[in-house]
Design goal:
Elements (H helix, E strand, L loop, with lengths): L4 E3 L2 E3 L3 E6 L3 H6 L9 E6 L3 E2 L3 E2 L5 E3 L1 E8 L2 E10 L1 E2 H10 L4 H4 L5 E3 L3 E2 L7 E7 L2 E7 L7 H8 L9 E4 L7 E2 L5 E8 L2 E9 L1 E2 L2
The chain binds zinc ion.
């Protein structure tokens, strides 16, 4: 089954989600990582895309709230809110062995995406807010990023191609934490003070 995202009330089918690690200084500090010399990319396949936020049966999963972009004709065409779900304990084990992160980052349901809306405004004014059960837990925006979305897009294109409707996720600010069954997530994207798109999720459990 090919997974879809909503864009401007239509279903579209990204071939992949291109993600970047360590793009906000605040998050690098909270995980005790170092600032990378060049952007660290990883990919979530189409099979990782989900409209729902579901805890997998087999893992401790962290949320990472991210500004996500829909790419068309090689440029930013839409914006949405994304959760990059991460099995942090699995990732830690893989990292110490220097192994790839797919088991921690590319599992089914690991890219939870809001609907996307058309966007061609001033990218520097975009920010995100994630609230859980009414409390704001993550906030940050393009102004806080090490590499801007435009820079990330250019850099990624030096080694991969974006198909139309592919998604670019731009990293997470500080405040990551664990996903718990029954929690209510509200993800919002703002342009300045104006709400651009939002989505809420009730955390479900895998059957
Ligand atoms: Zn991330």
């Amino acid at each position: 089954m090919i997974r879809s995202v909503w864009f401007d009330t239509k279903e579209v089918y990204p071939s992949k989600v291109v993600c970047v690690a360590r793009n906000y200084l605040s998050h690098i500090k909270e995980l005790g990582n170092t600032v990378p010399e060049q952007a660290v990319f990883f990919i979530k396949p189409n099979s990782a895309i989900s409209h729902d936020l579901v805890l997998p049966a087999d893992g401790i999963v962290a949320y990472e709230a991210e500004i996500a972009f829909l790419i068309r004709d090689n440029v930013i065409f839409g914006v949405g809110f994304g959760l990059d779900l991460t099995k942090r304990d699995v990732q830690a084990a893989l990292k110490t062995k220097g192994l790839p992160w797919e088991r921690a980052k590319a599992f089914d349901g690991a890219a939870v995406l809001s609907p996307f809306v058309p966007f061609n405004g001033d990218i520097t004014g975009l920010s995100l807010r994630l609230s859980i059960n009414g409390d704001v837990v993550q906030q940050g925006g393009v102004a806080d990023m090490i590499n801007s979305p435009t820079t990330l897009l250019i850099e990624a294109k030096t080694f991969l191609s974006f198909e139309d409707n592919d998604i670019l996720m731009t990293g997470t600010p500080e405040g990551v934490g664990l996903v718990k069954a029954g929690d209510r997530f509200l993800g919002q994207i703002f342009q300045g003070d104006v709400l651009v798109v939002e989505q809420d999720w009730l955390v479900g459990t895998a059957v």
